[in-house]
Amino acid sequence: QVKSFLKEEGGVDLYKNVKVNFIHGRKAVLTIYRDGVETEKVTLSDYNDKMKLHELFVEKGFEKYSFAEVRERRMRLKREEEEKLKVRNNDSKMDRGFLRNARTNLKTKRELKEKIKQLKEARANYMMDASLVV
Predict the structure, then answer these.
(1) How far is the C-alpha of 6 from the C-alpha of 73, rounded, in Å?
(2) Interatomic CA distance for residues 112 and 6, integer angstroms
(3) Where are the alpha helices (DSSP H) in 8-134?
(4) Residue 31 gets which letter from DSSP?
(5) How far apart are CA 117 and CA 98, in angstroms?
(6) From CA 6, how far away is CA 10, in angstroms rounded?
(7) Among candidates 17, 5, 89, 21, which has minimal Cα distance to 60?
(8) What φ, ψ does residue 69 adopt, rounded to 5°?
(9) For 63-89, what is each residue's pLDDT tens digit?
């Protein structure tokens, strides 16, 4: 119940001035700050249903967003998530392009090395032929 209250819509996202930090392997603790100073800690796992958690947040003085504010926040978060996905997709496209270019460059490098080797051999042969003529 606590996990869904913290992660899903209709839980902690309804309250103003609440920030959730997930720490793997630790119990969920509500830390309350007043004027930047920690004033209280409440272990949320002691509350076994969402209604009790909502009651706790109201009791501790947290204000709920209005319906319009909640809708606007959710739309903004959705847009931000879509932007992150676009960036990730563009990065992955660039990575594929880079890999394609790298393969082409490797082929070109191999061809270049082979050409240099042929030129060195040709020069060595030419020098041998020139030394025989003198």
Answers:
(1) 16
(2) 59
(3) 50-59, 67-133
(4) E
(5) 28
(6) 9
(7) 17
(8) -65, -40
(9) 999 999 999 988 998 898 888 877 776
pLDDT in tens, 9-41: 889 989 998 988 888 888 889 999 988 899 999
| Element at 3 (helix H, strand E) | helix 2-7
Q: How far is CA 45 from CA 31, 58, 112, in A?
A: 13, 17, 66
List beta partners, residue 64: 15
Please report, as a single letter, which amino acid is at residue 129.
D
Residue type present at position 127: M
Cβ-based burial of 56 (10 A; exposed 0-12, middle 13-18, buried ≥19): middle
Residue 25 in tokens: 């392997």
